[in-house]
Amino acid sequence: MTKRDFIKEVLVTHEEIVAFCKTLASNLESTFDEKDEIVLLCVLKGSLPFMAELLKHFTRSDIVCEFLRASSYEGQSTESKGIVDISCNTLDVIEGRNIVILEDILDTGRTLQAVRDYLAAKGAKTIKIATLVDKPERRVVNIKADYIGFTIPDHFVVGFGLDFDEKYRNLQDIIIPYPEKL
Ligand code: XMP
Ligand code: MG
């Protein structure tokens, strides 16, 4: 039998995620002109299922997929600053492009702020942010997503890309776990 005893509460169902992706694809298609390129930028690794689901719902067939990895480290100083390191970037040319950043979860906001500033510094034409989950209570920097799937209270969640120790990314729902059972 599939082990599911670590699930305390299902916060977002797979059906709700699919419905959001469908709406988001349609919103992006109406935001950008048909002649304009749309580059989806998946922030690895957590946004991979989000990108894969979103891709299914476009009617146009020229969506560009790129990937980058952003890792945050707590600073060494007494005040933890959370330094974000951007690596494994597949997006060679940033200048003049319409980039939609796909993030699994917007928490303190540091990761997205760093990714957005990096793209802006390299001359992106437009930068939009789409996050599957938003935890606004935890924000420490001034950043807002243009598209938000689900706003949740300050709970640690896993599933649909979100991991605990690299596991549980393949759960189809987003859930609150019993930490001691993970
Ligand atoms: P910031 O704080 O930069 O962080 O907005 C975003 C990244 O933090 C991770 N994160 C979580 N991962 N469950 C997770 O599995 C959570 O509840 C959670 N909250 C934050 C995640 O990697 C995200 O990209
Ligand atoms: Mg992430």
Summarize the biggest pleated sheet.
6 strands, mixed
Low-confidence stretches: 76-80
First-residue to last-residue Cα separation:
17 Å
Rounded mean pLDDT score: 93
Q: Strand order within the widest sheet?
A: 4-3-2-5-6-7
Order of helix and strand elements from N to C terminus: EHEHEEEHEEE
Secondary-structure-based class equals alpha/beta
User: What is the strand content?
Assistant: 25-35%
Shape: globular
Specify the helix fraction band.
Answer: 10-25%
Task: Briefly characterize the structure.
The chain is an alpha/beta fold and 182 residues long.
Structure description:
- With 182 residues, the chain is of the alpha/beta class.
- The chain contains 3 helices and 8 strands; from the N terminus they run βαβαβββαβββ.
- It has a 6-stranded mixed sheet, with helices on both faces. It has a two-stranded antiparallel ribbon with strand order 1-8.
- Strand 2 (39-44), helix 2 and strand 3 (64-73) form a beta-alpha-beta unit.
- The radius of gyration is 17 Å and the shape is globular.
- The chain binds xanthosine-5'-monophosphate (XMP) and magnesium ion (MG).
- Magnesium ion is lined by residues 43, 46, 103-104.
- Xanthosine-5'-monophosphate (XMP) binds at residues 46, 72, 103-111, 156-158, 162-163.
Defining traits:
single chain, 182 residues, alpha/beta, 6-stranded mixed β-sheet, two-stranded antiparallel sheet, 3 helices, 21% helix, globular, binds xanthosine-5'-monophosphate, binds magnesium ion
Blueprint of the fold:
Elements: E1 7-12, H1 14-31, E2 39-44, H2 48-55, E3 64-73, E4 83-87, E5 98-106, H3 110-121, E6 126-134, E7 147-151, E8 174-177
Parallel strand pairs: 2-3, 2-5, 5-6, 6-7
Antiparallel strand pairs: 1-8, 3-4
Helix pairs in contact: 1-2
The structure holds xanthosine-5'-monophosphate and magnesium ion (MG).
Xanthosine-5'-monophosphate is lined by residues 46, 72, 103-111, 156-158, 162-163.
